[in-house]
Amino acid sequence: MIRVGVIGYGYWGPNIVRNLNSLGCAKVVTVCDRRESALARAKQAYPGVTVTQDEAEVLNSPEIDAVAVITPVWTHYDLAEQALNNGKHVFVEKPFTSTAEQGERLVELAERKGLTIMVDHTFLFTGAVRKIKQLVDEDALGQLYYYDSMRVNLGLFQHDVNVLWDLAPHDLAIMDYVIGMEAEAVVATGAGHLNGHADVAFMTIYFPNNVIAHLNVNWLSPVKVRTTLLGGEKKMLVWNDLEADEKLKIYDRGVKLQTTENVYEALVSYRSGDMWSPKVEATEALKLELGYFAECIEKGERPFNDGLAGLRVVKMLEAAEGSLKRRGEVVYA
Amino acid sequence: MIRVGVIGYGYWGPNIVRNLNSLGCAKVVTVCDRRESALARAKQAYPGVTVTQDEAEVLNSPEIDAVAVITPVWTHYDLAEQALNNGKHVFVEKPFTSTAEQGERLVELAERKGLTIMVDHTFLFTGAVRKIKQLVDEDALGQLYYYDSMRVNLGLFQHDVNVLWDLAPHDLAIMDYVIGMEAEAVVATGAGHLNGHADVAFMTIYFPNNVIAHLNVNWLSPVKVRTTLLGGEKKMLVWNDLEADEKLKIYDRGVKLQTTENVYEALVSYRSGDMWSPKVEATEALKLELGYFAECIEKGERPFNDGLAGLRVVKMLEAAEGSLKRRGEVVYA
Amino acid sequence: MIRVGVIGYGYWGPNIVRNLNSLGCAKVVTVCDRRESALARAKQAYPGVTVTQDEAEVLNSPEIDAVAVITPVWTHYDLAEQALNNGKHVFVEKPFTSTAEQGERLVELAERKGLTIMVDHTFLFTGAVRKIKQLVDEDALGQLYYYDSMRVNLGLFQHDVNVLWDLAPHDLAIMDYVIGMEAEAVVATGAGHLNGHADVAFMTIYFPNNVIAHLNVNWLSPVKVRTTLLGGEKKMLVWNDLEADEKLKIYDRGVKLQTTENVYEALVSYRSGDMWSPKVEATEALKLELGYFAECIEKGERPFNDGLAGLRVVKMLEAAEGSLKRRGEVVYA
Amino acid sequence: MIRVGVIGYGYWGPNIVRNLNSLGCAKVVTVCDRRESALARAKQAYPGVTVTQDEAEVLNSPEIDAVAVITPVWTHYDLAEQALNNGKHVFVEKPFTSTAEQGERLVELAERKGLTIMVDHTFLFTGAVRKIKQLVDEDALGQLYYYDSMRVNLGLFQHDVNVLWDLAPHDLAIMDYVIGMEAEAVVATGAGHLNGHADVAFMTIYFPNNVIAHLNVNWLSPVKVRTTLLGGEKKMLVWNDLEADEKLKIYDRGVKLQTTENVYEALVSYRSGDMWSPKVEATEALKLELGYFAECIEKGERPFNDGLAGLRVVKMLEAAEGSLKRRGEVVYA
Q1: Is the C or the N end of chain D the one with fewer CB within 10 Å?
Q2: Does some domain include residue D310?
C-alpha cells in the first residue's frame, strides 16, 4: 500500500485524491492546503484523512511514501525537491517546473536517490491519445508530416502565467509522446490584450526528419475548439476531443510525388479513400495514470511520463516564451 | 460599353468572361490563351468572340479598353505593364505580382497614366466579408484583438508557388480590407514534404494597436477547413465559409479586465450572451466585383481593391516567404 | 421544513435526494428501496437518513410530509394512493401512472384531500424548454403549425414497457406544456424486433387549430439524436438538446400564402432572415422543479405539472399504445 | 444511336438533355414544351435540336426511338401511353403516374409491345444508394430492422400535389430498391396549413419480416435535413446526404437478446464498436441512369427501375394519401 500525501486541494487536487483512493494499492493519508476552506472540503469528503496547512507535515512525514504536488507551477520545484530529498516519490502537476534548469535539477536528484518522478500529463492516458500513439507506433500513418493543434476557448485567464504556459503543455506533452523525437527549434508569436500576459499565441516546433508541429492557443475565442490534425504519408488523422462518440477519424488520404524525368513536370497524385473512426476507450485517464504511478514505484520502473518528459515540455515552453517576446525569433534546442 | 480582352482561359478565365458578359455594360471581345484547347472551349461557348494565342493582339488592339490578366502570377507584371502602357485599364488575378517591386511599378504607372488597376480579391465581394466589414466599420465588435484564419485541404499542389502564395492571398486580402491598417511585421514558419515547396505554413502578422493576425494554410489536410475567428472587445465572430446557411455567427461574448487597486489582483470578467447569425447575401461575388470594375472605369474612381491593395498583400507574402526560409525571423514592413 | 420520504433509490432516486437536501426548505428523512445494496449506498452518502426496505414505514410515518415515488410505473398508483390517503403530498416519477383511470383516481383523491401532486416532468424546468415556452407565450413564433421531435439512441431496453412508455413521456410533457391544448386524436405505429415490446415507434398527435405533433422514438439507433422542430407562422425553432452551447436556434423564416383572385394561382412566398440563438440558462432543472414542489406545498398552490398534466400525458400514451397495436388506427380523446 | 424526344423543358428537362447528349450512344433530336421561353433556352443551348410546342410532333415522329416525359405527373399517363402505342421506349419522371391504375396499364402496355419503361428514380444511381444496396445485398447489416428517413426543408410548395407526392417518391424508391420487398400496409398522417394540401406528413410502411419504414417529409422546416437511418441486426447505418465528404457512416453497433430460462429476465446486450465511412463515388447519377436506359433498350433488358418499380412507389403514395385523409387508417396492399 503506497501512502500518499497530496499538497494542493483546489480544482484538480480532489480528482487526484479520489482516484488514488479508488486504486486499491494506494491511500491518501494527508491533504495539505493553505486555505482552510479547502481542508474543510477534504475532511468532509474523506473523514479519515489528516489535513494540514503546513506542507512540512507532508514532506517530512515518515508515514508518507509519495507526494503529489498539485499546486501552482512556481511552487513545484521547492516542494518536489524537499520531497525527493526526504526519500519520497513525487507526482507533479504539469507543467513540471517554471524553468528548464529546475527541471534538470529534479531529474538529476531523483536519479541519484533512485526515486520516481511522474509528471501529470493526463492526456497521455486518454483512449484517444493511446490510440493515436498505437497508430503511429504501428506505422499506420507512415512517415509523419505535421502535427497541428488548436486549443481555444473563452478564459480561464491566469494571473501568473500566459496562455502558452496554461494551455500548451497538454499539446506539447502529447506531441512529445506521439512524435517521439526531441524538438530542434521553436518559434512563437502572440499578443496580450488585457493584463499584460499573452492571451493569444501560436507556436511552431521543428522536429527532425522535416516533421513540423504547430499550436494555436487562445483565451479569447468565442467558441471552444479542441482539434488536432496529424498528417502522414500513408494516412491522416483528425482528433476532435469535443466529439462525444467519434473523437478520432482516420482518413485513407494522401499525396504522393510522381517523379518524372523532367523535374519541372513532377506530378503530385492524390489518394482519397475511406474514413474510419475507431472506438476509443472511455476509461478515466487520471485513474489509469495514477495506477501506473503506483506500479512504477512498486516495480522500480521509470515511467514514460517521467521527469525527463516533463523537462522536454518545459524546455519547449521556455523557448516559446523567449521567442514570443522577440516576435518569433527562432530558439534552438 | 467597356470592351474587354481576357488573357488566360484556364480554370478561372471562363468565370471572368461569363460574368463580364452578364453585366450589360461590358463585353468580352477577345480571349487569349496559349493552349488551342482553351480557345476551342471559348469559341464554343461564345461564338462571337475573337480568340488568339498571341497576347499582343489583346495588348495592342485599339478595340479593347480593358484587359483582364488571368494567368500565372509570374506573367502578371509584363502583361499588365504592356496593357497600361497601351492605355488600357487592367483587372489582375491575385496575387497581384511576384514581387513588391513589380507591384510598386505597376501602381506608379497606372497613377501616371490615369488608368484603373483592380486586383481580383473576389472574397471582398462575398456577402460574408461585406457583412464582416460592415460590422467592424460600425464598431459592433469593439476594439479588435485578433484575426485567426484556417484554410486547409488536400491539394491542389502548385508547381511554381508554395502553399503561402496559393492559399494565403485570400486571407491577406480579407484581413487587409477588414482591419484597415498596414502590417507592422510578419513571421512565418512552415515545411515542405514533397516537391521542395512549403506545403504547410503558418503566418503571424503584427498590426498596430496590438491587433494580431494568424493564418494556417495547408495542402496536406485530410479535411477541408475554411474558418476564421475574429475577436473584439465587445463581440466575437466565427466565419465558417463551408456552412451552407449559417456562415457567420456573432457572439455576444467578451472578457473585461476589472482594474483594482492591487494590480496583482486584477480580475478578468467574462460575458456570455446570445449568438446571432445574420442572413448573408448570396449574390455571385465575381459579378459584383466586375460590375464595380466597370463602374470605377466609367466614373474614374479608384477601387478599394486597387493596385495598392494588391501591393500590400504581395508585401506580406514576400515578407512571409523570407521569414519562412529563415525559420520565423521577423520581417518588418 | 418539508420532511420527505423517498421510495426508490435506483438510477434517479439519488438525484432526487441530493437536490431535495440542497434546497434548504426540505429534508429527506427516509429512503426506501427493496434492494439492500441501494440502501447501503444511501446510508453511505447520507449517514443521517433512515433507510428501510418496507415502504409502509414511509407511507405511514407521521414524521413525513411528502413522499417522492421514484419506482417503476406499475407501482406508482398503489404507492401514491396510500400516501395521499395518509395525508401526504406526492411527487411522482413520470409517467404518472400505468393507465389513465389510475391517474384520474389519484387526481380526484388529491383534490378531495387538498394535497399536492407533482409529476416529475423535469424537462419543463430546463433553460431550453422555459425559453421555448416563453417564446410561444409571447407569440414570437406566431400561430403554431407543427411540433416534431426525434429522440433516438441505442438502448436502454426496458423489460416492462415499450419504447413509447420509456422515451415519449419527455416529449409529450413538453408539447403538452408548450402547445397548451388538449390532444384531439392520436395515431401510433411501430415495431418490436427483440423481446416483443416495440423498440421503434412513431406517434402523431392531432391538436385543435390544425396543430400537428409527431414523435420519433427508437431504441435501435446507432446515433443519439435529441432534436425538436417547432414551426410557426412567424418564426421557426430548432432545439438540439445535445449541443453544448447553442441548444436553441430561432429562424426568422416563414411561408405565406399570397391570396390572389384566381385561387388556382395562389402563390406561396418564402421569408428567410437571420437566425438567433438565445443564451439558455444552465441551472439544474431537477433542483428548480423540487424547489417549486416545496413552494407549491407551502403556498397551497397547484403546480402546472400537477396530476392533470401527468394524466394528459398518460392518456396520450394509452391512446398511442392502442393505436400502435392496431397499426395506426386513430384513437380520439 | 438512340434518338430521343424530350417533352418538358422546365427545371429538370435541361439536365436530361445535357446528360443524354453526353452519353455518346444517344442523341436528343426534339425538345417539346408548351412555353416559348423554354424552347428559346433549348434552342440557344442546342442549336441543332428541333423544338416544338406540339407533343404530337415527338410522339408521332418516325425519327424518334424513345421519349423522355419530364412533365407534371398528371400528364404522364397520356404522354407515355401514346409513346408506347407508337412503338417508342419511355423514360418517365417520378412519380410514375397519378394513380396505380394508370401505372398498371402502362406496365401492361409496355409488356405487350416489348418496349422499355424506365422511371426516373435518380437517387438509385447515386454513389450513396449504390453503396447501401451493396451492403444490404452482402448482408453486411444483417436482418433489417427499420428504415427511417427525414427529408425536410423550407418549400418549394407545389400547387398540384401535397408534400407526400413531392418529397416522398425519393425515399419510397430508395427503400423499395434497398429493402427489396413489397409493402404490406401503409399508414400516413399529416396536416396542411396554407393552401389546403398537406405540407407536413409522416408515413409508416410495414414490410414483411417485421421490417418497418418511416418517412418524415415537411415543406415548413427552417432547416434542410436529408438523413436516413437504417438499422440491422449486425450493423447500423446513417446516411446524411448533405455531408460533402462523409455521406455514409456504418456503425458496428447492435443489440442482441440474451435468452435465459426465465423469460422475464431476458437480457438485452449492446455492442458498440468502430464506425466506418466508405468513400462514395461522385459520378453524376443522372448520367449513369440514362446510360443504363440506353443499355437496356439496346440489349432488350428490363431495368430494375422499370414500370413495376414506378408502380410500387405510386401504390404506396396512393395508399398514403388515402390513409392521411382518414387520419392514419391503415391501408393494406
Answers
A1: N
A2: no
Residue D199 lies in a domain: yes
Cβ-nearest to D273 among A249, A252, A279: A279
Report the CATH number at residue A32: 3.40.50.720
CA atoms within 13 A on the CB side of A188: 28
| Alpha-helical segments (H) within chain C | 13-23, 36-45, 56-59, 76-85, 100-113, 127-137, 163-179, 285-299, 307-325
- Cα–Cα nearest to C231, from C266, C202, C271, C281: C271
Q: What letter does residue B302 receive in the DSSP assignment?
A: P
Specify the pTM: 0.92
Domain end among D115, D141, D175: D115
Contacts of D223 in chain B (CB under 8 A): 245
User: Nearest Cβ partner of B279 from C245, C274, C277?
Assistant: C274
What the block records as the C-alpha cell of D142 is 444483417
Q: Can you give the pLDDT at residue A140?
A: 96
**Closest CA–CA distance from residue C184 to any residue of chain D (Å):** 11
The answer on A192 and A71 residing in a single domain is no
- Complex ipTM tops 0.90: yes
Does B39 share its domain with B133?
no
Type of residue found at A8 = G
Shared-domain flag, residues A109 and A249: no
Residue B250: all three cell numbers together: 456573432
Chain A and chain D share a number of CB contacts under 8 A equal to: 30
Residue at B294 is within a domain: no
Residues D172 and D99 in one domain: no
CA B170 to chain centre: 4
- pLDDT tens-digit readout, B134-170: 999 999 999 999 999 999 999 766 667 899 999 999 9
CA distance B46 to B68: 17
Instruction: Quote the CA–CA distance of C110 and B143 in Å, as a whole number.
Output: 61
Residue B277's closest chain C neighbor by CA?
Answer: C275
Q: What is the pLDDT of residues C170-180, one digit of tens each?
A: 999 999 999 99
The answer on C270 and C143 residing in a single domain is yes
Whether a cis peptide bond, with omega within 30° of 0, leads into C290 is: no
pLDDT recorded at residue A263: 46
Q: Containing domain of residue B228, as a range?
A: 124-280
In this model, does residue D264 exceed pLDDT 80? no
Q: Which residues contact D325 (CB under 8 A, 6 or more apart)?
A: none
pLDDT digits (tens, 9 = 90+) for D32-42: 999 999 999 99
User: Could you tell me if B42 and B129 lie in one domain?
Assistant: no
- Chain D residue with CA closest to A252: the answer is D279
> Is C262 a member of any domain?
yes
Among C115, C137, C162, where does a domain finish? C115
Cβ–Cβ gap D266/C189 under 8 Å: no
Number of residues in chain B: 333
Which chains sit next to D, with 3 or more Cβ pairs under 8 A? A, B, C
Chains that touch B (3 or more CB pairs under 8 A): A, C, D
Domain count, chain D: 2
pLDDT tens digit string along B232-277? 999 999 999 999 889 999 999 887 776 655 544 456 677 788 999 9
Is residue A143 located within the same domain as residue A268?
A: yes
D223–B245 CB contact, under 8 Å:
yes
Q: Using CB atoms, pick whichever of C146, C185, C264 lies closest to residue D200.
A: C146
Q: Which residues contact C224 (CB under 8 A, 6 or more apart)?
A: A244, A245, C152, C153, C154, C242
| Closest chain C residue to D205, measured at CA | C189
CATH code, A235: 3.30.360.10
Q: Which residues of A touch D253 (CB under 8 A)?
A: none
Residues B14-28 have pLDDT tens digits of 999 999 999 999 999
Nearest residue in chain A measured CA to CA from B236? A222
pLDDT of C258 reads 67
Is residue C14 domain-shared with residue C129, that is, in the same domain? no
Average pLDDT, chain C: 93
φ and ψ at A99, to 5 degrees?
-140, 160
